[in-house]
Design goal:
With 263 residues, the chain is α/β, with parallel strands linked by helices. The chain has 11 helices and 10 strands. The structure holds acetoacetyl-coenzyme A.
Length: 263
Amino acid sequence: MHFEHLILHKETKSATIVLNRPKALNAIHEGLLHDLKTVVAYLEKASDILVVVIRGQGEKAFAAGADIAAMCDMNSKQAEAFSKHGGDVFTSIEHSKKPYIAAVHGFALGGGCELAMACDLIYASKTARFGLPEVTLGVIPGFGGTQRLMRRIGIAQAKELIYTGKTIKADEAFSLRLVNQWFDVDTCEALMEKVTTTTEMICKAGPCAIAQAKQVIHQGQSVSLEQGMALEQNRFGALFDTHDLKEGMTAFLNKKTAQFHGK
Ligand code: CAA
């Protein structure tokens, strides 16, 4: 598959989406959003792909935000539509049945940070810089940042980052629990090697179970504990109708490695 603004690498069982506008620090414009929408929909249907990694092209940025040059002359209707377009694409990542991992090397600012937060896991190199600097441009985060940041790190810390627009390093992002882990590496390639450890572990698990876990955790965020428990019990039961579950449990009892087929 060919895209104008991103590159798709398919490996065995995993895929990497590379945001490919390095001259603009991978800033996100309509064209990139369109490509992202297409690739996410394509990967959702690709039964051989179990986990997806997103990274930026080049050593300098994951993505330095929405494209300021493209936004500068928008009127309010166009800006709202752009915000909705980005919001919808990022939500399709959050709603995907496959885990998405953001591998952040360099700047993840504004829309770049928002894209990372739509992913399930965020791994960072020591060069990573996070922030939502939108207020310094006279605007607010528009691709879900006001909503996802507070859900990840709590309302007080989210307000501080959003009101100040400050940029934080990988270790501080880890302390705030914005990122899962940061690694003492300074190249994108070295970060990707670290990320591979996690992708390989996810690829060995049962795809139906991973999909259900993702969905139940996500839905559980916005319901009561009782409703969340009921959801979990229902999905736990549903997995007993899958071949994957029989395969996983039988393999364990026979001291073999399970061969899952995602059904
Ligand atoms: N949009 C468009 N172009 C961008 C960009 C962005 N968000 N970020 C960087 N670029 C471009 C620069 O204009 C520059 O282009 P030229 O070479 O043609 O001049 C190129 O990328 C390299 O950037 P810099 O020269 O600025 O690089 P630097 O190392 O000096 O600074 C930086 C790096 C601190 C990340 C700086 O580029 C910067 O502050 N970028 C903007 C970050 C930002 O404000 N992001 C939020 C955008 S608004 C948003 O995201 C709204 C939303 O939620 C939907």
